[in-house]
Amino acid sequence: MPDDPAAQVLDVPVVTDPATVLSNVPDGSIKIPDNWKESLPSDLRSDPVLEQIKDVSSLVKGYIHGQKRLGSSIRIPGTDADENEVNEFLGKLGRPESADKYTELETKDLPDGVEVNADFVKSFREAAYKSGLNDKQQVSLLQEVMKSELSAIDQNTGAEEGDLDKIEDGLRAHFGQAYDQNLAVAKKAYDTFVQKDY
Predict the structure, then answer these.
(1) How deeply is 145 buried, as exposed, middle or buried, from its count of CB atoms within 10 A (0-12, 13-18, 19+)?
(2) What is the C-alpha to C-alpha distance for residues 125 and 141, in angstroms, rounded to an integer?
(3) What whole-number percentage of the chain has pLDDT above 70?
(4) Do 129 and 178 reside in the same domain of the chain?
């Protein structure tokens, strides 16, 4: 029976692709009811996240925003990740392409006569790179190591000066008034028998 509406519906091809369906609908001709949430399954309808969404337009905007955020997010590699995935992840966190690309250490604040051991810095940077440190972490940690080393140098220098003071005090006690005379003899012997450039 050709006039039967049910028969006419059955003759229409079924389209399952929403983009195809929507591309054939003129703009503004789809009317979404205000109670659109009622058409959702009850478990979705009762989700607290949907309470914040007032209309379909807000839902779509939120979905688009979420997809963009997912696209720019950093995924933590799993235990099965290969070396390339781990390196890509560490690069996104700020680790340079190689150990020699780390920022150079500022040495302007070093005391006179103190030089940075280039071999140590190179080894340190290689270890930092293998450990996955980003540039900021590497600089901060290297500065802390340098501070610790400078503190140790200051302590050793102070101890040496303290030791010299103790030795001098001991010699003064031993020689008494003859200390200055014996010191002058020792200096003269040094100047006479020890080469100046030695």
Answers:
(1) middle
(2) 10
(3) 73
(4) yes
